[in-house]
Amino acid sequence: MYKKIELDNGLHIILNHMPSMESATIGIWINAGSRNENARVSGISHFLEHLLFKGTPTRGSRKIKEEIEGRGGSLNGFTSEDVTCYLAKVSGQHVDVALDVLSDMVLNASLAKKDIARERSVIIEEIKMYRDLPNHHVHDILSEMMWPRHSLGRTITGSIKSVSSITRQNLLDYKNKNYSPANITVVLCGNIESDSSVRKIKKIFGRISEKKTQDPVRFSNRQASPQLKILYKETEQSRLSMGMHTFGRMHRDRYALSLLHIILGANMSSRLFENVREKRGLAYQIGTEIEKHKETGAFIVNAGIDHKNVKETSGLIIKELVEIKNKVVSSSELKRAKEFLKIQLLLALEDTLDHMIWLGDYAVATGKLPDKKDIIKKANAVSRDDLQRVARDIFNKKNLNLALIGPIKDRERHGLEQRLGEL
User: Fold this and answer.
1) Does residue 167 surpass a pLDDT of 90?
2) Phi, psi of 42 (to 5 degrees)
Protein backbone atom coordinates (compact mmCIF):
# COMPACT_ATOMS: atom_id res chain seq x y z
CA MET A 1 0.00 0.00 0.00
CA TYR A 2 1.55 3.28 -1.08
CA LYS A 3 1.42 6.36 1.09
CA LYS A 4 1.99 9.92 -0.15
CA ILE A 5 2.68 12.95 2.02
CA GLU A 6 3.15 16.56 0.96
CA LEU A 7 5.10 18.93 3.19
CA ASP A 8 4.11 22.57 3.61
CA ASN A 9 6.92 23.64 1.26
CA GLY A 10 5.67 21.39 -1.55
CA LEU A 11 8.09 18.47 -1.19
CA HIS A 12 6.55 15.02 -1.62
CA ILE A 13 7.29 11.82 0.29
CA ILE A 14 6.17 8.44 -1.05
CA LEU A 15 6.39 5.33 1.11
CA ASN A 16 6.02 1.68 0.19
CA HIS A 17 6.45 -0.59 3.20
CA MET A 18 7.46 -4.10 2.07
CA PRO A 19 7.87 -5.96 5.39
CA SER A 20 9.07 -9.23 3.87
CA MET A 21 12.10 -7.55 2.29
CA GLU A 22 15.58 -7.39 3.82
CA SER A 23 16.51 -4.37 1.71
CA ALA A 24 15.25 -0.86 1.28
CA THR A 25 15.83 1.54 -1.59
CA ILE A 26 15.71 5.28 -1.15
CA GLY A 27 15.52 7.69 -4.07
CA ILE A 28 15.59 11.47 -4.11
CA TRP A 29 13.96 12.54 -7.37
CA ILE A 30 14.34 15.96 -8.97
CA ASN A 31 11.65 16.89 -11.47
CA ALA A 32 14.20 18.33 -13.90
CA GLY A 33 16.43 16.79 -16.55
CA SER A 34 18.02 17.63 -19.86
CA ARG A 35 14.75 18.95 -21.32
CA ASN A 36 14.85 21.76 -18.74
CA GLU A 37 18.10 23.11 -20.22
CA ASN A 38 18.78 25.75 -22.82
CA ALA A 39 21.22 24.96 -25.62
CA ARG A 40 24.06 27.05 -24.19
CA VAL A 41 24.32 24.92 -21.04
CA SER A 42 23.19 21.62 -22.58
CA GLY A 43 24.34 18.78 -20.32
CA ILE A 44 24.19 20.79 -17.08
CA SER A 45 21.69 18.42 -15.39
CA HIS A 46 24.02 15.47 -15.97
CA PHE A 47 27.09 17.55 -15.01
CA LEU A 48 25.45 18.49 -11.71
CA GLU A 49 24.48 14.88 -11.03
CA HIS A 50 28.15 13.88 -11.32
CA LEU A 51 29.24 16.68 -9.00
CA LEU A 52 26.82 15.83 -6.20
CA PHE A 53 28.84 12.66 -5.59
CA LYS A 54 32.05 14.67 -5.12
CA GLY A 55 31.47 15.88 -1.60
CA THR A 56 29.86 18.24 0.88
CA PRO A 57 31.40 20.35 3.68
CA THR A 58 31.04 17.37 6.06
CA ARG A 59 31.59 14.43 3.69
CA GLY A 60 34.24 14.01 1.05
CA SER A 61 33.64 11.92 -2.05
CA ARG A 62 35.22 8.83 -0.53
CA LYS A 63 33.24 9.13 2.70
CA ILE A 64 29.97 9.40 0.75
CA LYS A 65 30.70 6.09 -0.96
CA GLU A 66 32.10 4.36 2.13
CA GLU A 67 29.10 5.24 4.30
CA ILE A 68 26.85 3.29 1.93
CA GLU A 69 29.16 0.63 0.49
CA GLY A 70 30.84 0.02 3.87
CA ARG A 71 27.43 -1.14 5.08
CA GLY A 72 26.95 -3.46 2.12
CA GLY A 73 24.79 -1.08 0.14
CA SER A 74 25.01 0.47 -3.32
CA LEU A 75 24.88 4.11 -4.36
CA ASN A 76 23.96 5.49 -7.77
CA GLY A 77 22.37 8.28 -9.74
CA PHE A 78 20.99 8.92 -13.20
CA THR A 79 19.83 11.75 -15.41
CA SER A 80 17.14 11.45 -18.07
CA GLU A 81 15.39 13.98 -20.26
CA ASP A 82 12.74 14.53 -17.57
CA VAL A 83 14.28 13.78 -14.17
CA THR A 84 17.42 13.38 -12.11
CA CYS A 85 17.56 10.75 -9.36
CA TYR A 86 19.98 9.95 -6.54
CA LEU A 87 19.49 6.56 -4.93
CA ALA A 88 20.84 4.04 -2.46
CA LYS A 89 19.92 0.42 -1.82
CA VAL A 90 20.74 -0.73 1.71
CA SER A 91 19.58 -3.18 4.35
CA GLY A 92 16.53 -2.04 6.26
CA GLN A 93 18.59 -1.20 9.35
CA HIS A 94 20.59 1.43 7.43
CA VAL A 95 17.75 3.52 5.96
CA ASP A 96 18.57 6.49 8.20
CA VAL A 97 22.20 6.48 7.05
CA ALA A 98 21.12 6.41 3.40
CA LEU A 99 18.74 9.32 3.98
CA ASP A 100 21.51 11.29 5.69
CA VAL A 101 23.98 10.71 2.86
CA LEU A 102 21.59 11.33 -0.04
CA SER A 103 20.05 14.45 1.50
CA ASP A 104 23.49 15.85 2.31
CA MET A 105 24.52 15.36 -1.33
CA VAL A 106 21.39 17.02 -2.69
CA LEU A 107 21.23 19.94 -0.26
CA ASN A 108 24.87 20.67 0.59
CA ALA A 109 27.06 19.72 -2.37
CA SER A 110 30.27 21.78 -2.31
CA LEU A 111 30.62 22.15 -6.10
CA ALA A 112 34.31 22.86 -5.57
CA LYS A 113 36.14 24.40 -8.52
CA LYS A 114 38.73 21.62 -8.59
CA ASP A 115 35.95 19.00 -8.74
CA ILE A 116 34.20 20.90 -11.53
CA ALA A 117 37.40 21.02 -13.59
CA ARG A 118 38.13 17.32 -13.05
CA GLU A 119 34.57 16.18 -13.70
CA ARG A 120 34.36 18.31 -16.83
CA SER A 121 37.23 16.26 -18.26
CA VAL A 122 35.53 13.02 -17.21
CA ILE A 123 32.27 14.00 -18.92
CA ILE A 124 34.03 15.08 -22.11
CA GLU A 125 35.60 11.61 -22.25
CA GLU A 126 32.13 10.13 -21.63
CA ILE A 127 30.77 12.12 -24.60
CA LYS A 128 33.61 10.83 -26.79
CA MET A 129 32.95 7.27 -25.64
CA TYR A 130 29.28 7.46 -26.59
CA ARG A 131 30.15 8.90 -30.00
CA ASP A 132 32.38 5.88 -30.58
CA LEU A 133 29.52 3.50 -29.74
CA PRO A 134 27.33 3.31 -32.87
CA ASN A 135 24.38 1.77 -31.00
CA HIS A 136 24.35 4.79 -28.69
CA HIS A 137 25.25 7.48 -31.23
CA VAL A 138 22.56 6.38 -33.70
CA HIS A 139 19.93 6.97 -31.02
CA ASP A 140 21.26 10.49 -30.49
CA ILE A 141 20.97 11.15 -34.22
CA LEU A 142 17.40 9.83 -34.22
CA SER A 143 16.46 12.08 -31.28
CA GLU A 144 17.81 15.12 -33.10
CA MET A 145 15.72 14.18 -36.14
CA MET A 146 12.53 13.59 -34.18
CA TRP A 147 12.72 16.60 -31.85
CA PRO A 148 14.56 19.25 -33.90
CA ARG A 149 15.47 22.56 -32.26
CA HIS A 150 14.11 21.29 -28.95
CA SER A 151 15.83 20.16 -25.77
CA LEU A 152 14.47 16.60 -26.24
CA GLY A 153 16.56 16.43 -29.41
CA ARG A 154 19.82 17.17 -27.59
CA THR A 155 21.93 14.57 -25.80
CA ILE A 156 21.65 14.21 -22.04
CA THR A 157 25.42 14.54 -21.67
CA GLY A 158 25.54 17.73 -23.74
CA SER A 159 28.17 18.52 -26.35
CA ILE A 160 31.88 19.04 -25.79
CA LYS A 161 31.32 22.73 -26.56
CA SER A 162 28.46 23.20 -24.09
CA VAL A 163 30.08 21.20 -21.28
CA SER A 164 33.33 23.11 -21.76
CA SER A 165 31.52 26.41 -21.25
CA ILE A 166 29.48 25.56 -18.12
CA THR A 167 30.67 27.60 -15.12
CA ARG A 168 30.29 27.09 -11.38
CA GLN A 169 27.80 29.96 -11.34
CA ASN A 170 25.76 28.23 -14.07
CA LEU A 171 25.65 25.10 -11.89
CA LEU A 172 24.64 27.04 -8.78
CA ASP A 173 21.92 28.92 -10.68
CA TYR A 174 20.54 25.72 -12.20
CA LYS A 175 20.54 23.95 -8.81
CA ASN A 176 18.86 26.86 -7.03
CA LYS A 177 16.19 27.02 -9.72
CA ASN A 178 15.40 23.32 -10.08
CA TYR A 179 16.32 21.67 -6.77
CA SER A 180 13.47 23.38 -4.93
CA PRO A 181 11.04 21.53 -2.60
CA ALA A 182 8.15 21.46 -5.09
CA ASN A 183 10.48 19.72 -7.55
CA ILE A 184 11.71 17.08 -5.05
CA THR A 185 10.11 13.72 -4.31
CA VAL A 186 11.64 11.33 -1.76
CA VAL A 187 10.66 7.71 -2.40
CA LEU A 188 11.28 4.82 0.02
CA CYS A 189 10.55 1.19 -0.82
CA GLY A 190 11.19 -1.94 1.19
CA ASN A 191 11.98 -2.71 4.81
CA ILE A 192 11.32 0.76 6.22
CA GLU A 193 9.93 2.26 9.42
CA SER A 194 7.49 4.65 7.77
CA ASP A 195 6.78 7.00 10.70
CA SER A 196 10.44 7.30 11.65
CA SER A 197 11.47 7.97 8.05
CA VAL A 198 8.80 10.65 7.61
CA ARG A 199 9.95 12.44 10.77
CA LYS A 200 13.53 12.38 9.55
CA ILE A 201 12.65 13.66 6.08
CA LYS A 202 10.54 16.46 7.57
CA LYS A 203 13.44 17.45 9.81
CA ILE A 204 15.91 17.51 6.91
CA PHE A 205 13.81 19.03 4.15
CA GLY A 206 11.06 20.87 6.00
CA ARG A 207 13.24 23.93 6.65
CA ILE A 208 13.81 24.62 2.95
CA SER A 209 11.70 27.49 1.67
CA GLU A 210 9.30 27.04 -1.22
CA LYS A 211 10.28 28.41 -4.64
CA LYS A 212 8.39 28.75 -7.88
CA THR A 213 9.20 26.19 -10.56
CA GLN A 214 8.86 26.47 -14.32
CA ASP A 215 7.70 23.77 -16.71
CA PRO A 216 9.93 22.97 -19.69
CA VAL A 217 8.97 24.06 -23.20
CA ARG A 218 6.45 21.67 -24.74
CA PHE A 219 7.15 19.94 -28.03
CA SER A 220 4.77 20.25 -30.98
CA ASN A 221 5.22 17.73 -33.79
CA ARG A 222 5.25 19.29 -37.26
CA GLN A 223 6.74 16.41 -39.23
CA ALA A 224 4.99 15.90 -42.57
CA SER A 225 7.23 13.48 -44.49
CA PRO A 226 9.67 10.61 -43.83
CA GLN A 227 13.24 11.52 -42.88
CA LEU A 228 16.49 9.63 -43.46
CA LYS A 229 19.90 10.48 -42.03
CA ILE A 230 23.03 8.43 -42.69
CA LEU A 231 26.34 8.90 -40.88
CA TYR A 232 29.07 7.28 -42.96
CA LYS A 233 31.49 5.48 -40.67
CA GLU A 234 33.80 2.52 -41.16
CA THR A 235 32.27 0.13 -38.65
CA GLU A 236 32.11 -3.66 -38.47
CA GLN A 237 28.33 -3.49 -38.32
CA SER A 238 25.71 -0.99 -39.41
CA ARG A 239 23.39 0.35 -36.73
CA LEU A 240 19.79 1.21 -37.49
CA SER A 241 17.34 3.20 -35.39
CA MET A 242 13.84 3.79 -36.78
CA GLY A 243 11.51 6.06 -34.84
CA MET A 244 7.93 7.21 -35.08
CA HIS A 245 6.24 9.92 -33.00
CA THR A 246 3.69 8.75 -30.46
CA PHE A 247 1.67 10.48 -27.75
CA GLY A 248 2.23 11.61 -24.15
CA ARG A 249 2.80 9.04 -21.44
CA MET A 250 -0.71 9.30 -19.94
CA HIS A 251 -2.60 9.05 -23.25
CA ARG A 252 -5.53 6.63 -23.21
CA ASP A 253 -3.84 4.44 -25.85
CA ARG A 254 -0.64 3.90 -23.84
CA TYR A 255 -1.55 0.29 -23.01
CA ALA A 256 -2.22 -0.54 -26.65
CA LEU A 257 1.19 0.94 -27.50
CA SER A 258 2.89 -1.21 -24.86
CA LEU A 259 1.23 -4.31 -26.29
CA LEU A 260 2.33 -3.38 -29.82
CA HIS A 261 5.87 -3.08 -28.46
CA ILE A 262 5.66 -6.56 -26.92
CA ILE A 263 4.24 -8.14 -30.08
CA LEU A 264 6.73 -6.48 -32.41
CA GLY A 265 10.02 -6.45 -30.54
CA ALA A 266 10.15 -6.78 -26.74
CA ASN A 267 11.28 -10.40 -26.49
CA MET A 268 12.54 -13.47 -28.37
CA SER A 269 9.05 -14.54 -29.45
CA SER A 270 8.33 -11.12 -30.99
CA ARG A 271 7.64 -10.75 -34.70
CA LEU A 272 10.79 -8.80 -35.54
CA PHE A 273 13.07 -11.16 -33.61
CA GLU A 274 11.45 -14.16 -35.25
CA ASN A 275 11.38 -12.86 -38.83
CA VAL A 276 14.60 -10.83 -38.98
CA ARG A 277 16.91 -12.89 -36.78
CA GLU A 278 15.55 -16.41 -36.40
CA LYS A 279 14.24 -17.03 -39.93
CA ARG A 280 16.71 -14.99 -41.98
CA GLY A 281 19.75 -14.46 -39.74
CA LEU A 282 20.01 -10.79 -40.74
CA ALA A 283 20.67 -9.39 -37.26
CA TYR A 284 22.04 -10.42 -33.90
CA GLN A 285 20.26 -7.64 -32.02
CA ILE A 286 16.85 -6.38 -33.05
CA GLY A 287 14.08 -5.06 -30.86
CA THR A 288 11.76 -2.20 -30.04
CA GLU A 289 11.46 0.33 -27.26
CA ILE A 290 9.05 3.05 -26.20
CA GLU A 291 10.23 6.51 -25.17
CA LYS A 292 7.74 8.37 -22.99
CA HIS A 293 7.52 12.05 -22.10
CA LYS A 294 4.71 14.21 -20.73
CA GLU A 295 3.36 15.46 -24.07
CA THR A 296 5.11 13.30 -26.65
CA GLY A 297 6.91 10.02 -27.16
CA ALA A 298 8.43 7.63 -29.67
CA PHE A 299 8.15 4.04 -30.85
CA ILE A 300 11.65 2.93 -31.82
CA VAL A 301 13.06 -0.09 -33.66
CA ASN A 302 16.78 -0.80 -33.14
CA ALA A 303 18.97 -3.24 -35.04
CA GLY A 304 22.60 -4.13 -35.64
CA ILE A 305 23.09 -5.60 -39.12
CA ASP A 306 25.66 -6.46 -41.75
CA HIS A 307 26.19 -3.56 -44.18
CA LYS A 308 24.97 -5.52 -47.18
CA ASN A 309 21.68 -6.28 -45.42
CA VAL A 310 20.67 -2.72 -44.49
CA LYS A 311 18.14 -2.31 -47.30
CA GLU A 312 16.65 -5.78 -46.87
CA THR A 313 16.35 -5.45 -43.10
CA SER A 314 14.79 -1.99 -43.37
CA GLY A 315 12.27 -3.44 -45.79
CA LEU A 316 11.43 -6.32 -43.45
CA ILE A 317 10.87 -3.93 -40.54
CA ILE A 318 8.56 -1.81 -42.69
CA LYS A 319 6.78 -4.98 -43.81
CA GLU A 320 6.08 -5.96 -40.19
CA LEU A 321 4.73 -2.49 -39.40
CA VAL A 322 2.47 -2.62 -42.46
CA GLU A 323 1.33 -6.14 -41.52
CA ILE A 324 0.22 -5.13 -38.03
CA LYS A 325 -1.62 -2.12 -39.49
CA ASN A 326 -3.47 -4.08 -42.13
CA LYS A 327 -4.18 -7.37 -40.40
CA VAL A 328 -5.74 -7.69 -36.96
CA VAL A 329 -3.54 -9.66 -34.54
CA SER A 330 -4.82 -13.05 -33.43
CA SER A 331 -6.52 -13.49 -30.09
CA SER A 332 -3.79 -15.87 -28.93
CA GLU A 333 -0.99 -13.44 -29.79
CA LEU A 334 -2.72 -10.62 -27.94
CA LYS A 335 -3.33 -12.89 -24.95
CA ARG A 336 0.38 -13.79 -24.78
CA ALA A 337 1.34 -10.11 -24.97
CA LYS A 338 -1.02 -9.20 -22.13
CA GLU A 339 0.35 -12.00 -19.97
CA PHE A 340 3.93 -10.88 -20.69
CA LEU A 341 3.09 -7.29 -19.70
CA LYS A 342 1.42 -8.41 -16.47
CA ILE A 343 4.08 -10.85 -15.31
CA GLN A 344 7.02 -8.60 -16.21
CA LEU A 345 5.44 -5.83 -14.13
CA LEU A 346 4.82 -8.10 -11.15
CA LEU A 347 8.32 -9.59 -11.29
CA ALA A 348 9.93 -6.15 -11.42
CA LEU A 349 8.02 -5.07 -8.33
CA GLU A 350 9.58 -7.87 -6.28
CA ASP A 351 12.87 -5.95 -6.12
CA THR A 352 13.00 -2.83 -3.95
CA LEU A 353 15.26 -0.96 -6.40
CA ASP A 354 13.12 -1.66 -9.46
CA HIS A 355 9.98 -0.94 -7.45
CA MET A 356 11.35 2.41 -6.24
CA ILE A 357 12.28 3.46 -9.78
CA TRP A 358 8.88 2.43 -11.18
CA LEU A 359 7.03 4.19 -8.38
CA GLY A 360 9.16 7.34 -8.45
CA ASP A 361 9.14 7.66 -12.22
CA TYR A 362 5.34 7.44 -12.37
CA ALA A 363 4.72 9.74 -9.40
CA VAL A 364 7.11 12.47 -10.52
CA ALA A 365 5.82 12.42 -14.10
CA THR A 366 2.11 12.38 -13.28
CA GLY A 367 1.71 13.66 -9.74
CA LYS A 368 -0.24 10.47 -8.98
CA LEU A 369 0.46 7.05 -7.49
CA PRO A 370 0.41 4.02 -9.80
CA ASP A 371 -2.02 1.17 -9.27
CA LYS A 372 -0.71 -2.11 -10.63
CA LYS A 373 -4.17 -3.72 -10.55
CA ASP A 374 -5.61 -0.84 -12.56
CA ILE A 375 -2.73 -1.03 -15.04
CA ILE A 376 -3.29 -4.75 -15.57
CA LYS A 377 -7.06 -4.23 -15.84
CA LYS A 378 -6.69 -1.52 -18.49
CA ALA A 379 -4.11 -3.52 -20.43
CA ASN A 380 -6.45 -6.52 -20.41
CA ALA A 381 -9.25 -4.30 -21.77
CA VAL A 382 -7.30 -3.49 -24.95
CA SER A 383 -8.95 -5.11 -27.96
CA ARG A 384 -7.51 -6.36 -31.24
CA ASP A 385 -9.23 -3.44 -32.97
CA ASP A 386 -7.57 -1.02 -30.53
CA LEU A 387 -4.16 -2.36 -31.53
CA GLN A 388 -4.90 -1.95 -35.22
CA ARG A 389 -6.25 1.57 -34.73
CA VAL A 390 -3.16 2.71 -32.80
CA ALA A 391 -0.83 0.99 -35.27
CA ARG A 392 -2.51 2.81 -38.17
CA ASP A 393 -2.19 6.10 -36.34
CA ILE A 394 1.53 5.74 -35.57
CA PHE A 395 3.02 3.57 -38.31
CA ASN A 396 2.76 5.85 -41.34
CA LYS A 397 5.39 7.33 -43.62
CA LYS A 398 4.82 10.99 -42.71
CA ASN A 399 5.69 10.01 -39.13
CA LEU A 400 8.77 7.95 -39.98
CA ASN A 401 12.43 8.67 -39.15
CA LEU A 402 15.40 6.44 -39.95
CA ALA A 403 18.94 6.99 -38.64
CA LEU A 404 21.84 4.81 -39.80
CA ILE A 405 25.53 4.56 -38.95
CA GLY A 406 27.89 2.50 -41.06
CA PRO A 407 29.85 2.40 -44.33
CA ILE A 408 26.71 3.14 -46.35
CA LYS A 409 27.32 4.79 -49.72
CA ASP A 410 25.32 7.71 -51.14
CA ARG A 411 24.12 5.53 -54.00
CA GLU A 412 22.31 3.31 -51.48
CA ARG A 413 20.26 6.22 -50.18
CA HIS A 414 17.65 6.08 -52.95
CA GLY A 415 16.83 2.43 -52.23
CA LEU A 416 16.40 3.19 -48.53
CA GLU A 417 14.14 6.15 -49.30
CA GLN A 418 12.00 3.84 -51.42
CA ARG A 419 11.70 1.48 -48.47
CA LEU A 420 10.49 4.31 -46.21
CA GLY A 421 7.81 5.16 -48.75
CA GLU A 422 6.34 1.66 -48.39
CA LEU A 423 4.97 2.30 -44.91
Assistant:
1) yes
2) -55, 130
Q: Do residues 265 and 423 touch, judged by C-beta distance below 8 A?
A: no
How many residues comprise the chain?
423
* Residues sharing a CB contact under 8 Å with residue 28, sequence separation 6 or more, in sequence order: 85, 86, 87, 102, 103, 106, 184, 185, 186, 187
Distances (CA, A) of 12 to 9, 368, 393: 9, 11, 37
Q: In what order do the strands lie in the sheet with 227-232?
A: 227-232, 400-406, 238-246, 297-305, 283-292
Distance CA 334, CA 343 (A): 14
On the question of a common fold for 2-205 and 227-420, the answer reads yes
Give 243-262 pLDDT, tens digit per residue: 999 999 999 999 999 999 99
Label residues 43-74 b or e (16+ Cβ within 10 Å = b): bbbbbbbbbbbbbbeebeeeebeebbeeeebe
The CATH code belonging to domain 227-420 is: 3.30.830.10
**Residues recognised as catalytic:** 49
Q: Which CATH class is domain 2-205?
A: alpha beta
The residue among 274, 273, 275, 282 whose CA lies nearest residue 304 is 282
Q: What is the pTM of this model?
A: 0.97
Backbone angles phi, psi at 125, to 5 degrees: -65, -35
Pairing of strands 238-246, 84-91: unpaired
Q: What digits encode the pLDDT tens for the residues 218-242?
A: 999 999 999 999 999 999 999 999 9
17: nearest Cα among 204, 195, 200: 195
For 149, left (φ over 0), alpha (ψ -120 to 50), or beta? left
- Is residue 99 within 8 A of residue 26, CB to CB? The reply is yes
SS3 140: helix
Angstrom distances, CA of residue 47 to CA of 167, 174, 280, 291: 11, 11, 44, 23
First to last CA, the chain: 45
Rounded CA separation 359/17 (Å): 13
Domain boundaries, the chain: 2-205, 227-420
Distances (CA, A) of 83 to 91, 185, 342, 384: 26, 11, 26, 34
